[in-house]
Amino acid sequence: KTTDKLFKPFNKQTERIDLDYRVKTSNPEVRHIQVNAVVKYKNKKPAKSHGIIIDITAQKENEIELYEKNQELEQFARIVSHDLLTPLNSVIGFADLLKEKFASLPQSREFQYTNKILESSTRMKTLITELLEYSHIDGIKKLERIECNEIVEEVVTDLDSIVKKTDCKIKYDSLPVIEGCRINISRLFENLISNSIKFRKQNSTPEIVIKGRESANFFEFSVEDNGTGIGEDDINEIFKVFKRAENSEKVAGYGIGLAACKKIVNDHGGDIWVISTQGKGSTFYFTIKK
Prior knowledge:
Strand order of the largest sheet: 5-7-8-10-9
Oligomer: single chain
Shape: extended
EC number: 2.7.13.3
CATH superfamily of the largest domain: Histidine kinase-like ATPase, C-terminal domain
Protein name: histidine kinase
Structural class: alpha+beta
CATH class of the largest domain: Alpha Beta
Number of domains: 3
Largest sheet: 5 strands, mixed
Pfam families: HATPase_c, HisKA
Keywords: Kinase, Phosphoprotein, Transferase
Catalytic activity: ATP + protein L-histidine = ADP + protein N-phospho-L-histidine
CATH topology of the largest domain: Heat Shock Protein 90
Order of helices and strands: HEEEHHEHHEEHEEHEE
Helix content: 40-55%
């Protein structure tokens, strides 16, 4: 395979070759080989070459094992989360009935205990639901043409209740058309927009500005808000599962939303980061590979 490519006629003076392929040894055993070489041509014929040939069998085996382990973990998370929700819904249902029974006695221990059961089980349900959604981000199975203006419009409509309640102002215009997984790109924008609304400043109208531009190899987007901002110590932690900023104690959630954003962006060959000033707001940037 390498030889075939080396001796193909090229019009260029220099050609770089990067190949991964399998070879069968006399054992017989299959080995994974990587070739990195530069070939110099003269009169369209190879005249000189230099490079390296590496046996990457162990690396490939580790990659396959890691992929299989990740698949097992995601499958485990889906099964456990789903199986936990069924009995939990029963607990919530019966606790709700008990709360109604003792509604006329709001100061009684029975009412207060029932209310605590209901609050705790509802928080657990939220956590399990978020974990289930995170485990469902399986990468890109099918690329679709996505009108980002259309996606953001749908997300804002879905968030209509909280948008109206907070009198949030959301501005966006002429966002790029990209290719990707529609449901995950929608989830990405929803998480970032709802996150900006959650971390709004008290007695202040939340404002969100969404921009997008096209570069040579990527589409770059930004979601800017005038919220509470993020401290320097939290900047590198907030994209990890269950990691939350110090100023998030009074905000509902379990630190899964931004981890999901990172997973979605990485699946699309991009990156995500944030620039923030505490007390002034944050701008989340992410890229999507063309």
